Amino acid sequence: MEQEKLGETGWRGSREGWLEAAYESLVEAGVDAVRVLPLSKRLKLSRTSFYWFFADREALLAALVDLWRDKNTGNLVKRTESYAESIAEAILNVFDCWLDQQLFDSRFEFAVRSWAQQSADVAREIDAADTARLQALQAMFVRFGFEPFAADVRARTIYLTQIGYISMKTEETLATRMARIPKYVEIFTGQMPTPSEMVRFCARHGFVQAQEASGGAAQ
User: Fold this and answer.
1) N or C: where does the chain have the smaller number of CB atoms within 10 Å of the terminal CB?
2) What is the Cβ-side half-sphere exposure of residue 100, based on CA atoms within 13 angstroms?
3) Residue from 136, 67, 71 nearest 103 by CA
4) What is the pLDDT of residues 24-66, one digit of tens each?
5) Can you state the percent helix, strand and coil of the chain, rounding each to 5?
6) Where are the domains of the chain?
7) What's the rounded Cα separation, in Å, for the pair 13 and 48?
8) With b meaning 16 or more CB within 10 Å and e meaning fewer, what string describes 202-217?
9) CATH for 1-54, among 1.10.10, 2.60.40, 1.10.150, 1.10.3470?
């Protein structure tokens, strides 16, 4: 038993290590770079050790899709269901995904969407993810009293805006993004977030707001 345990995490590496290397290759260079021999060189492991954890390259690619689905779609749906006292606060919960790579990995999203252009199976995964995410956003609006059609349009406006950010690889400083977020919330929901809602949101992301009145820092 001890020898078997050592074999799983020793010179063969680990399943998580191979998957992490595959992820890095995917986001850096696309799916064509996700191949066993280059990964083994990257990890400084034998090529045969790969097969201890995955039956073949297709199994590794399937694991990457599972990882993407669980992380990006799973976390986005959870944020739409998080507790909020107003629709503005609910949208800020969703916006956590756009600022926290641990919740929603935009590099991973871009890589998988690029991959879908050459794989019908991955394209179907993208379609299913888009549907699930939009339905979750729509349900969030309905929960706050919006009628279903209006909720659907608002959900699409939010989601397609963010996918545009990802597709264009838009880069903003945290200060610039934070300055724009209250207006985004107003456009998406019809109401501005309260100062206390913004303070809580900024605190979650380690951002200290400037106090408009005194020029000092928010506590």
Assistant:
1) N
2) 20
3) 71
4) 999 999 999 999 999 999 999 999 999 999 999 999 999 999 9
5) 70, 0, 25
6) 1-54, 67-219
7) 11
8) beeeeeebeeeeeeee
9) 1.10.10
